[in-house]
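Recall from the previous lesson that a structure prediction takes nothing but the amino acid sequence as input. Here we apply that procedure to D-3-phosphoglycerate dehydrogenase from Propionivibrio dicarboxylicus. The sequence below is the only information supplied.
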Amino acid sequence: MSVVLLSHRLYEDGMKVLERESTTDIANSSDLRNNLEQVKQADGIVLRVGRIGRDLMEACPKLRVISRPGVGVDTVDMAAATELGIPVVIAPGANLRSVAEHAMALIYAITKNVLESHLKTAAGDFGIRNKYAAIELAGKRVGIVGFGNIGKETARICKNNELAVSVYDPFVPASVAEGLGYQYEADLFGLLGACDILSLHMPATPETEKMFGERQFAAMKAGAFLVNCARGEIIDEAALYTALSTGHLAGAAVDVMEDEPMKPDSKLFSLPNFIATPHMAALTKESASRTSKLTAEGTLAVLRGERWPHVANPAVYAHPRWQK
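The prediction returns the following tokens.
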């Protein structure tokens, strides 16, 4: 049987699928370089947390598939995988509703000052109710940056909560957003100055790294809120700290940070107007079941020699490995 190494266990529904046709090995590590002997025995790797570069791929001569339980592949050296004939399996669409709901939950939590109010109340400070930090959402404008499947679903939920929606995505025609009843902004800074809430939904790429920094936060409306359920690397966290601590931004709520697992000594955690969840937006029971099963099915299909359609590097099938 093929050996599949997982950085961490999948949701049990996915583990059951994998175990039907493979021997599974759990590294319980976000740095597989510390598990080199396990890596060398793997026909497939399922990467939940951590990175895989060319060095690991080349050290693993049996490796035939890398799988990501989601759609983000910024932690995989895609050029190396394609060059080596290794498909990178993804699970598109399986978690979009869960992530969009989490973004909406963070919007409510930060605009209603839920966390600070809870902590102060638990400490005996009932007077926190008189801070008047909460706002109503009806009639406010939310900016959706990144209008892929998750961005679209988040926009739809926001609209159903009576928020006006503006969209910025240079890779999406204006007609797509406008056809759904949203305002399209061709200029990012035009969007920043118009919105009360900003929700980020773009991938981590060299172009989006620290895309939101001092200039972008300064361009946002005074008193605006920021929500990030995309990737931590797209935010300059030092600049975000300044924007929050000076009061220019009223609050920020994120599911992702630059360092994961998140470092509790980050200055952001000292702020009452900052909320973080541990990259859990996609980890609902329903989403975890769908994602884990789709990931496992794709992993096994590739190991059987099938051209699984849900891969992040479809050009890999032109590799000589796949011409046999």
